[in-house]
Amino acid sequence: MTVTAVVGCQWGDEAKGKFVDVLAEHAEIVARFNGGDNAGHTVINQFGTFKLRLMPNGLFNPRATCVIGPGVVVNLATLISEIEMFRQAGLDPGERLWISPRCNVVMPYHPLIESIFEQAKGGARTGTTGRGIGPVFADKVSYNGIQLYDLFDPQQFMDKLRLQLAIKNPILQAFGLQPLELEAVYQEKLAQFAQVQQWVREPFGLLQATLQRGSNVLLEGAQGALLDNNWGTYPFCTASVTLAGGACAGLGIAPHWIDKVVGVAKAYTTRVGAGPMPTELTDEVGQTLQREGQEYGTVTGRARRCGWFDAELVRFTCQLNGVTGLALTKLDVLDTLPVVKICTGYRRPDSVESRRYWEGDAHWLAGCQPEYIELPGWQRSTKEARIFSALPAAAQVYVRRVEELVNTPVSFVSVGPEREATIRAG
């Protein structure tokens, strides 16, 4: 038996979806444990191209059951559209989808409140996806959330919704927005719930039985470790726990079951939205990375900021998650560059010593300058390589240098978005 968690080791968008798809071939359960529909996974396989925001990737394996755990907040409209997308591809969920009734529901007022917060912050805005995820989690921890459980009981749902609109509508009106109409929201959510109700059932017993039976379980994380609410660049982060340990609370799995953690990181660094990014490049190299990597957000379509690989950050996130093997993605994006750089630490104006990410907050990190080592580029295509020895020698050196600097073995190298464009490196 193997219980494997797949997590992002940067600011998200590391191509975790591809590796969940690869590893799901051997899993009995594929389970999502955090986030909401603010996180996007793009999967390309024999069934087509799929841009997923809520559904786990396991439906491509006819033997796998897919689970959405209580650590996920659910936008019912997104869930319905993704189920329909799978059906159109001939992949009906049937009995293979389980959604915890403990999941909190994204309500129409959540994106509106998030937009109010962002506008009020002005130039200091966080740069959220606008999906309302922060306010959903805020309601959850302040005992104001609406769970899928509530939609099983229309009267209970009505009572909770009436209270929440009594709180939220005055806020909307104070900022010049129209109040939400109780009956319209009530009917919309009940109608949406009716379309997914057959899959809303507590997966805890299923997971425990699968673990006891010794079957393979794959835990699918969303976003990246540097967006974690505790350890990320707060407040430029997300609302949920994005670490491998988040699977314990987000699914109800005891820590001792997790025996492998695959950390996914790009061969360079990207970030969407605001917040510090020490290795960001605004020159021609940055434009090359953005163009060759097609660096535009799955959910928002926003252009991603691009920069050199930051080994200091990835070393930290590997320690934080207990990563047992790194999946280095998009190596092919570096193919045309004559020189490649890797950040090994930071300098501060007030210090001559090399500094570490965990020594300060987001404001502190914004004042850091990266320290680089320089390696020769390979200026040859890696896209057709399927074994490590087929990579250009300079590309092999680059991968091994990354491995050394982050103090974690590189297990996989990706040279394209397709499932088959994957090299086992260790």
Examine the secondary-structure arrangement and name the CATH architecture of the largest domain. 3-Layer(aba) Sandwich
Q: In sequence order, what are the helices and strands, one letter per element?
A: EHEEEEHEHHHHHHEHEEHEEHEEHEHEE
- How far from one another are the termini? 20 Å
Low-confidence parts lasting 5 or more residues at pLDDT below 50?
none
What structural class results from the helix and strand content? alpha/beta
The Cα radius of gyration reads: 22 Å
The shape is globular
Strand content: 15-25%
Q: Count the strands?
A: 16
CATH topology descriptor of the largest domain? Adenylosuccinate Synthetase, Chain A, domain 1
- Strands of the largest sheet, in order across it? 6-5-2-7-1-8-12-15-16
What is the CATH top level name of the largest domain?
Answer: Alpha Beta
Q: For the record, what is the CATH homologous superfamily label of the largest domain? A: Adenylosuccinate Synthetase, subunit A, domain 1
The residue fraction in helices comes out at 25-40%
